[in-house]
Design goal:
heterodimer, A: twelve-stranded mixed beta sheet, three-stranded mixed beta sheet, B: mainly beta, 45 strands
């Protein structure tokens, strides 16, 4: 059994200087009270959720809703988020920092709507709307979208990143970067474990994408088509998805084409998956064959299922199935890790209803 | 003359004797207690096992994850002088039931009390109408206690230095030596070193030129516990050198140093299953050369692990606790005069040759020099790649974390880039683990320890000659500044445990710099364990160190574990483990008032 090494560290998120927000007074959980093993869930944007148990009768000023939490593993931070009000059964839930972006505005430093991802993140952090910031140029895409007061920061970042075939990721230090999908597997699953592979799902499978955009001539709309003709031939039919590029505002044809190619690179011409996997130590190894320490798995790493014929791309067969992990769930000290791939289609009733409500 | 002695053969419930000298105990309140043999037992801790998922076709592995509590049962007979005495006996038992207490047991013919830490208990009445007529009642006390029995007194096991290097051959005599390659090589002893004088133009077979010397031991040398062989050698031509022992494949070189006089000291890794040395072959090969070349060996030593280069601000020690089961207790680190500075404590079971310090494994470092105030004794520039190579066998497999002690001449962010791969024969043979880590330097020109990365080791499974190699450098730093490193550590975490605290560097003062640090294992009183820093040895002024301190649960197995302690501001800190000696059910016998 692995050792428990994860520990939440709580602090107050406050305006440390005018126009600058940050954590104050970090208190590790071990200085507050004994706590159960930390369960951490990652999704495509970083840590999505962390949970741990404390005595239900515990009351402590740092264990309140709204506190800033950083999950540390032997001194290295692996996720940041906000504490949700602890429930009466002693379960403390921390929601990942990316969640702040879903309700954050896209106003710039002077309060005007902006479609520039870099300025929007900087301004939202300075106002205290989000608890993460940026540290490099991966968000520098200029004035990407048409400014709008109804545009949420999460949508702006997701869509602008997708246009360059990347995804926003908030790391354990609270820094957001646009990252491309990995191209090399970080972990391997031997054939004897997962020989039958993953069940493919057609839900998000498209051979072509057609997009509608506003041209530079006022009042005139146009259409752009991208796709993989060979895949359509191999499938026996063309399956077309529709993309709405109007939020970008007036753009020219080369820009429309580039945006569509970015989206297609992330999603198109391959099927999604209908299931994930639960694996234990020894069932998942480094590419060199060494059993993987399960606490090092996180989403947006690539995992290779050895010897599984990849039938998700109709135009060619691969001898190994390589997928990018979309969701990873691990409990500190446990012997199992659960993961599901990016583009996992909703299949259980719970998942289907969740999509319907969203 | 009255002999006053400790009661023998007894059972003690908290502070109430239930049995003394194998017989009943009478109390002035009017009752007598006795323990019945039928029904009384100490129980056993139930192992919680888990089957390991494996790909085997037949059979399965299982591991014991932990022990559950044991459930002792005491059947107690209460005999009263009168009905009031019976009630007094019942009250005496009730007062000690239902709360955490200690249950003591002194076996007959023994003088060491075994103590069980009782967590909870209940008492049940057994109705016996015949006994009621004799003013006798029977009670069954069911207890829940921590699974392992312990001694009544704590002991302090000091951590001891690893044993010193042992000289296998000082190379002052030719006894047992021969130069068997090439033909015509002449062996002699010159200035305290063995020299092979040979013609570098003679083909030794297969197109190779060079020489080899062999030492055969008529009485094999004991290599138990010694995982490193160090050879001091010198050659007149640039050569590729190698060593074989007992006709096994060539040993991997762990480290190479230049020493005075043009000599090289090479350290080689001994495989874990080699316990005695019968033969050593040491030689070299090189391109075609002329006659009259020399190849010399001055010294061969064996040692448990690579000697760390250091200033005694970091130590590798062993703790061998008393008892037959793993010990948890309080690790005490102290220094008489200086605050401890940055403290890192890493405990790990013995693993052939493993030592967390990475500086001995760096074969290429940025420009630097010596620094007697640093932990490693040296400093090196970090603005260029610093390369390291660690033999795979010297690193326990699994999860590990890298920490580093770094200084930057200006405050601000420093980004480090690092890479780690498995190497065989100088070429990478695995997926490269690489990433950047950002650290924030608060105080300019002051060394600080930082956690750098979580890694999995080894990147790929290799044979004995494999190495884990990589590099680390600073990629960006405040402009105009310089970045240097003192020491780096690779702490294995699958079976190891790590604790970290900042104890300050100012003079020790209550509430200020601390020259003592206590790392407590979890107990009933402190279920999360504890980390305390202070000045007074009685812990009266101790408090939790501030900042990002944390402690894992350290456990020390009988037979020994290594503990690596870094105290950046204190030289030769004392390290000891305070614990109860524990056994499966009975406390180990400890002599001499320990």
């Amino acid at each position: 059994m692995a050792r428990r090494t994860m520990e939440p560290v709580l602090s107050k998120w406050t305006e440390v200087a005018p126009g600058a927000w940050g954590p104050r007074g970090s208190t590790p959980m071990s200085a507050i009270a004994p706590f159960g093993p930390v369960s951490i869930t990652y999704d495509s944007h970083g840590m999505a959720e962390a949970q741990f148990e404390v005595d239900p009768r515990l009351q402590h000023p740092m264990l309140r809703g709204g506190m800033y939490a950083q999950i540390m593993d032997s001194g290295i931070p692996i996720g940041v988020g906000t504490v949700v009000e602890p429930s009466t059964d002693g379960l403390v839930t921390i929601v990942g920092a990316w969640n702040d972006a879903k309700t954050a505005t896209t106003l710039d430093a002077v309060g005007a709507p902006t479609g520039n991802p870099s300025s929007a993140v900087d301004a939202a952090q300075a106002r205290g709307e989000i608890r993460f910031g940026r540290a490099d140029d991966s968000l520098a895409l200029g004035d990407w979208a048409e400014p709008s007061t109804t545009l949420m920061l999460a949508d702006l970042l997701d869509d602008s990143a997708m246009s360059v075939a990347k995804t926003p990721w908030v790391d354990g230090y609270g820094v957001v970067r646009f990252e491309a999908d990995p191209t090399k597997p970080r972990w391997t699953v031997p054939h004897a474990v997962a020989g039958r592979g993953l069940a493919p799902a057609e839900d998000s499978f498209y051979t072509h994408l057609v997009g509608r955009y506003m041209t530079l001539t006022p009042g005139v709309m146009d259409t752009e088509l991208v796709g993989d003709d060979d895949a359509a031939i191999a499938m026996g039919r063309r399956r077309v998805g529709h993309v709405d590029l109007e939020p970008l505002g007036p753009i020219d044809k080369p820009r429309a084409h580039a945006e569509m190619m970015g989206i297609f690179a992330l999603a198109g011409a391959r099927m999604g998956w209908a299931e994930g996997m639960t694996l234990s130590t020894g069932q998942i190894t480094s590419p060199g064959g060494e059993p993987a320490p399960l606490s090092l798995l996180r989403s947006r790493q690539m995992i290779r299922l050895e010897g599984v014929i990849d039938t998700s791309r109709p135009s060619r067969l691969e001898a190994n199935l390589e997928v990018v992990m979309g969701q990873v769930k691990y409990t500190d000290g446990a012997d199992v890790v659960s993961w599901s791939p990016v583009q996992k289609a909703p299949r259980s009733t719970h998942e289907v209803l969740a999509v319907a409500v969203a | 003359m009255v002999l006053i002695r400790e009661p023998g053969h007894g059972v003690l419930l908290d502070d109430l004797y239930l049995m003394v000298d194998g017989g009943p105990v009478t109390y002035p309140e009017g009752f007598t207690l006795a323990v019945m043999s039928e029904g009384t037992e100490w129980g056993n801790g139930e192992p919680v096992t888990r089957a390991l998922l494996s790909l085997m076709s037949n059979g399965s592995f299982e591991v014991t994850e932990r022990l559950g509590n044991r459930s002792p049962v005491l059947v107690v007979e209460v005999v009263g002088d009168d009905p009031d005495g019976l009630i007094a006996g019942e009250e005496a038992l009730q007062a000690r039931v239902g709360r955490p207490i200690e249950l003591g047991w002194l076996p007959p013919l023994d003088d060491t009390w075994t103590v069980f830490d009782v967590v909870n208990s209940r008492m049940d009445h057994r109705m016996d109408d015949q006994a009621e007529l004799h003013l006798t009642r029977y009670w069954s006390i069911s207890l829940s206690a921590l699974p392992r029995g312990r001694s009544a007194k704590k002991v302090i096991t000091p951590a001891v230095s690893v044993s010193s290097p042992v000289t296998i051959d000082d190379c002052n005599s030719m006894t047992g030596w021969e130069a068997y390659r090439p033909s015509g090589a002449v062996l002699s002893v010159v200035s305290g070193a063995l020299r092979s004088t040979y013609d570098a133009g003679v083909d030794t077979g297969g197109g190779y030129y060079g020489t080899s010397m062999r030492r055969t031991f008529s009485t094999p040398v004991d290599l138990t516990g010694k995982r490193i062989i160090a050879v001091d050698w010198r050659s007149s031509l640039p050569v590729v050198h190698g060593i074989q022992i007992n006709d096994l494949p060539q040993l991997g070189q762990a480290r190479r140093e230049s020493i005075a006089g043009g000599w090289t000291r090479s350290y080689y890794q001994v495989p874990a299953d080699v316990t005695s040395l019968q033969k050593v072959d040491f030689g070299c090969i090189h391109p075609l050369g002329g006659p009259g070349q020399t190849f010399e060996i001055a010294d061969i030593k064996a040692m448990p692990r690579l000697p760390f280069t250091g200033t005694s601000r970091q130590q590798t020690l062993t703790i061998d606790p008393v008892g037959s089961v793993p010990a948890e207790g309080t690790i005490i680190i102290g220094h008489p005069t200086h605050s401890l500075g940055s403290v890192l404590v890493h405990s790990h079971p013995f693993h052939a040759g493993y030592s967390p310090m990475m500086r001995p494994y760096f074969w290429n470092t940025g420009p630097g020099g010596n620094d007697t105030n640093s932990v490693s004794g040296k400093w090196s520039g970090l603005t260029v790649p610093n390369d390291f190579a660690i033999p795979s066998v010297a690193v326990p497999p699994g999860k590990a974390v890298i920490w580093a002690r770094i200084a930057c001449s200006a405050a601000g962010p420093v980004r480090l880039r690092w890479s780690l791969s498995s190497y065989m024969g100088g070429s990478p043979v695995s997926f490269e683990q690489t990433a950047t880590s950002d650290i924030w330097v608060e105080t300019p020109a002051a060394y600080q320890v930082y956690p750098i990365a979580l890694v999995s080791t080894p990147p790929a499974r290799t044979g004995l000659s494999g190495a884990i190699a990589g590099w680390i450098k600073a990629e960006s730093w405040p402009s105009g500044a310089d970045v240097a490193w003192d020491e780096m550590w690779l702490f294995a975490l699958d079976k190891g445990a790590l604790s970290y605290a900042e104890c300050g560097t100012s003079s020790p003062a209550s509430g200020g710099g601390s020259n003592r640090l206590w790392i407590d294992a979890p107990t009933g009183d402190a279920p999360a364990g504890g980390l305390f820093a202070g000045v007074r040895a009685d812990r009266a002024d101790s408090r939790r160190p501030g900042g990002k301190a944390f402690s894992h649960n350290h456990e020390f197995a009988p037979g020994g574990s290594i503990v690596t302690v870094v105290t950046s501001n204190a030289v030769d800190a004392e390290v000891s483990l305070e614990h109860y000696p524990r056994g499966h059910t009975h406390a180990p016998r400890v002599r001499n008032g320990a």
